[in-house]
Amino acid sequence: MIKIAIQGVKGCFHHAAVSRYFEGCHYKLMECSSFREVSSSVAKSDVDIGVMAIENTIAGTILTNYSLLSEYNLRIVGEIYMPIQHHLMAFPGQKVKDIKEIYSHPMALLQCESFLEEHSDIKISKYSDTAAAAKYISKCNKKGLAAIASEDAAKEYGLEILSKNIQTITRNFTRFFVIKNSSKKENNFNKASLRFKILHTTGTLSKILSLISSLGINMTKIQSIPIIQRPWEYSFYVDIIFNSIKDYEMMKERIQKIPCLHKFSIMGEYKNGRIRS
């Protein structure tokens, strides 16, 4: 049985991502209060695997999680894209008009901004996790309190859904990384996450991107992250998808010869997890 660390408690979206990615496998969850705790647990081998959200189609990239992956030198071995549906839930027997305060994770609150603006008289309280917020109001057993969380969380903690699918954008997805502390190379991969730093030299980033394009490799994401205590300096994180391992290996060899590129590394090589409709 593998042990998997997630941020949150049973019923959260990380739990749902684990259930889908490891469908049919026996696993034990380690519930963590923060992404740093997830990263530390994976790095220290307290668990076999960690699952960590990295970006959302509404709220954007979770920049601190890229920093944690670098800080703890963790390897990306997989990814999964999950549809995210937020629901307003409360102790049974209430209506939306009865709610005085809503608890949820800041990212979930951001993703439900339009709904919350329509109910501006309700107090908003940030919580560590969506499912943890549901668990909290369930334990309170008190009217007037609600949580924004998943349908699984409502079932897990005996709450009634008062309003379904309250996310601002209907097609709301979160991308999760599957992470390990092992440097063992995965087999059967067609996607990679790269990390590098460049000096302030004209055209260096353009040369890197041109090289990737010239080899027929599809760049699906580029993200710059400020380097702490180094004003106006950035690390770049790039995701690429390729059909030919030969082209990929050629890119790795040629990219490191570009002047002014520093600290180039492969954060992970894994199977593209996005299922296109």
Notes on the protein architecture:
- The chain is elongated and about 65 Å long.
- With 277 residues, the chain is α/β, with parallel strands linked by helices.
- Strands 1, 2, 3, 4, 5 and 11 form a six-stranded mixed beta sheet that branches. Strands 8-7-9-6-10 form a five-stranded mixed beta sheet.
- The model has no long low-confidence stretch (mean pLDDT 92).
- The protein has helices at 13-21, 35-43, 63-71, 106-111, 113-118, 130-140, 151-156, 204-214, 245-255; strands at 2-7, 27-32, 49-56, 60-61, 75-83, 87-90, 101-104, 123-126, 145-149, 160-163, 173-180, 191-198, 218-226, 234-241, 261-270.
Brief description of this entry?
The chain has nine helices and 15 strands. The chain has 277 residues and is α/β, with parallel strands linked by helices.
Q: Using only CA atoms, what is the Rg?
A: 21 Å
Low-confidence stretches: none
Number of strands: 15
Task: Please identify, by name, the CATH architecture of the largest domain.
Answer: 3-Layer(aba) Sandwich
Tally the structural domains.
3
pLDDT averaged residue by residue: 92
CATH fold description of the largest domain: D-Maltodextrin-Binding Protein, domain 2
Largest sheet: 6 strands, mixed
Helix content: 25-40%
Global structural class:
alpha/beta
What's the CATH class label of the largest domain? Answer: Alpha Beta
The geometry reads as: elongated
By CATH, the superfamily of the largest domain comes out as Periplasmic binding protein-like II
User: β content, as a range?
Assistant: 25-35%
Order of helical and strand elements: EHEHEEHEEEHHEHEHEEEHEEHE
What separation lies between the terminal Cα atoms?
33 Å
Number of helices: 9
